[in-house]
Amino acid sequence: MSTASEPSAGFAEPLAGFAVGVTAARRHEELATLLERRGARVVLAPAIRVAPLDDDAELLEATRACAAGPLDHVVVTTGIGFRAWLESADGQGTRDALVARLAEAAIVARGPKARGAIRSAGLHERWSPDSEGLAEVTEHLLRQDLNGARVAVQLYGERQPELTAALRGAGAEVIEVPVYRWSRTEDPTPLRRLVGQAVAGTIDAITFTSAPAVAETLAVAAEDGLAEPLLDALRAHVVAACVGPVTARALTGRGVPTVQPERARLGALVRALVTDLPARRSRRLSVRGCALELRGHAVVLDGLLRPIAPAPMAILRALARRPGHVVSRAELCGALPGRLAPAGEARPQADEHAVEMAVARLRRGLGRPGIVETVVKRGYRLACDPRLAERLPAGAGG
Questions:
Q1: pLDDT at res. 247
Q2: How far apart are CA 306 and CA 7, in angstroms?
Q3: CATH 3.30.390.50 fits 282-388, yes or no
Q4: Taking the domain 53-175, which CATH number applies?
Q5: Do 337 and 201 meet the contact criterion of CB atoms below 8 Å apart?
Q6: Whether 4 contacts 309, CB under 8 Å
Q7: What is 10-47+185-280's CATH topology?
Q8: DSSP string of 334-360?
Q9: Given CA atoms 156, 109, 252, 34 in this order, what sign does their dihedral have?
Q10: DSSP H helical ranges for 242-343
Q11: Distance CA 51, CA 214 (A)
């Protein structure tokens, strides 16, 4: 494994040189592995956890209500939730009666994991939405005659008032089945650190696999006075990769562009990020006759991937925004990342000595003299003809 100062030939992986935050609670190891295989440096920061109900009396009552009479429709929202429901019923001695009622009902499976759990129980779904979203589920059910119908809705971590209110408005008796709840992770420190990295510009993308994870990330940022800085970062230079439109809704509603796969799968999410992230967070320049590619926290130079520390990388990005032109020390001071100040306090400004130190570290990190030139009494410049600089699409390079 390369150290922070050693060049690596591993840049062939599409995400090499990029740092990606993972907020998933479940299957975070699988997602991290998929990202690392494509070269990303993964920052694990679970936002939420699946927690048992504080009191399972409501689940017991809902299960008994389902088993006591015929069900016309059943909405299964998650595979893990459906399996937990059957396990709970087994413990109560009502599993057989519940399964018999489910077999008689028209089962709606929200997605493939829900379908898999249904079929594993020896049951079959009647319908499943292409979007895997509850809005489409709601539309489908409202096309049925629901007057007097009994509809069971397996919840997943939180109430779904838009769905249940619409069903009740159509005349249905709705039985809400709470199986588990979403809770804040026991140690939010990694998530707070990830928010700080996003604001400071040292993370390139954050992945979200559930709407509660988005909500908790924004809540943690708000507690630290960083809600708007985080949203600004997500709008500008940090890619928000969401597994689907339901997950993305809270971000898109705040003007944050999101990357979403065509199908809500972890593998598809990673493939979408592979396509989008290099286009958004890389820049290629011709410097002294060689190709220099800036990636998230590294450069590709002379065919080698060279990791660059945050402060030197901030200097390089500032110079690359005006390739071949002199950038003053004062401007570079503003480009350097500083510590995150408490809410309401101004962030301390770097001084010119800090710029000089960062430039010296940048030159060492690049490992090739003459790329960053000093212009006496004026500042620094990249040694390239700006007319030969190859620019990627607008916004690339952050």
A1: 87
A2: 4
A3: no
A4: 3.40.50.10090
A5: yes
A6: yes
A7: Rossmann fold (3.40.50)
A8: HHS--PPPPTTSPPPPP-HHHHHHHHH
A9: positive
A10: 245-252, 266-281, 310-320, 329-335
A11: 17
